[in-house]
Protein: Alpha-carbonic anhydrase domain-containing protein
Amino acid sequence: MHQCSLFILVLLCVSVKDISGSWEEWWTYDGISGPGFWGLINPQWSMCNKGRRQSPVNIEPDKLLFDPWLRDIQFDKHKVSGVLQNTGQSLVFRVEKDSKHQVNISGGPLSYRYQFEEIYFHYGMEDNRGSEHQIDHHTFPGEIQLYGFNKELYHNMSEAQHKSQGIVGISLMVQVGEPINTDFRLVTSAFNKVTYRGASFPIKHLPLSSLLPNTQQYLTYEGSTTHPGCWETAVWIIFNKPIYISKQEMYALRQLMQGSQLTPKAPLGNNARPVQPLHHRTVRTNINFNKQGLQGSSNCPDMYRNMHYTEGSETLLSVPSETIANGTTSTSTTTSASLTSVTSKGNDLSNPMAEGAQLAVPKR
Structure:
């Protein structure tokens, strides 16, 4: 039965490729052309099924390692222009190739300078799903991923994505609520211009650096692109604070379709690849939980004293400065505020990645 299904899959792949002329045009996030089959339908995408350093991943707070040598992330302040396009799989913004001023990304865990190239939008049709990366198995309504290529070693994204240290992926978790980023409205106001597959709309003078959350706290690990061909050449940086869009903007995003105006097919949303195993990779952070005044945090793993994980703290994710719980803001000092307690009401991810979050190892 399995051989028969695989044979049908191969026939389908061959026939569809003959019609479309390109693998890039018909892969999806579900069904027989979904993530579980990416590595089978195109030999060049074999890492999607065979790779052991794949993305996205679930971030386990009790396995984070504090690295004091991680630096701040540096973004050039230049504005960029490009095209927002509905590809039929995702909403993608790609920068103009001939722009006079390119945005460079450096610092953090990066050993090279990377040139910003594109933005991928991942989101759910409901608020309880959407992001590709997860925090302690909790998802956000969306995730915006900024990709750049290693400009010091390679000429472009096409070359870099196949090569060592070729790509940087910047992950911004998306939450529905306030405060709204007014600069981001240059993008969100164009959602209704790209409703159907193949539709595109030019966006001018986008201040990329101002789209980032107001924090220098982040998590980082080595992984892959989350779309085919899943190349294991990416350094991922996940900022420890979400960005926000309004309910109206999320509603407009959810109106986008996978197909053309004549055959719209299904909505474009729910375009998230399932989380992949870590396979013993280390996720590092620059959040110094030992300096946050968290009781018992002196036993948390770090790279000052230990090169292995230790046990001792009783919290997963503590927010001592400002905690949003059950939809309301509390400015009083809090202790032992775990991710579970923050999100216990209907999987409400109000702000589990708030500024000042403490990341520690719980008792087992």
